Amino acid sequence: QFPxxxxxxxxxxxxxxxxxxxxxxxxxxVYVDLSGLLEGKFDGAQFYEKHRDYFRxxxxxxxxxxxxxxxxxxxxxxxxxxxSYIDTMKLVVPAEHHQEFFYDNALRVYSKLQALLPQxxxxx
Length: 124
What we know:
Elements: E1 7-9, H1 17-26, E2 30-33, H2 44-50, H3 52-65, E3 71-72, H4 82-92, H5 98-109
Parallel strand pairs: 1-2, 2-3
Helix pairs in contact: 1-3, 2-4
């Protein structure tokens, strides 16, 4: 009913990840963020390994939908240490999608962010 509205499913719909990813796959104006999936400060690689089945499940559905242009980085800060979260998400999201996941997708979905960024000066 609202095709011009951009909807973002927070926390990848956790624990309903499959359902959230199906909604993303079937609706061009629906996106998902990977916020709020972890809590605290930890070594990203160790945390990933300890919870590898959870992260493999998440990655399976991200790969199945294959729409990394619709997946956004998010944290739920201050409940999470930013560095820990980034390190873990780098292991979840394939490296070839890091630029869009960590930056480009948010600018496209939250278009008002662009005006807040420093603008490059025109060269004369």
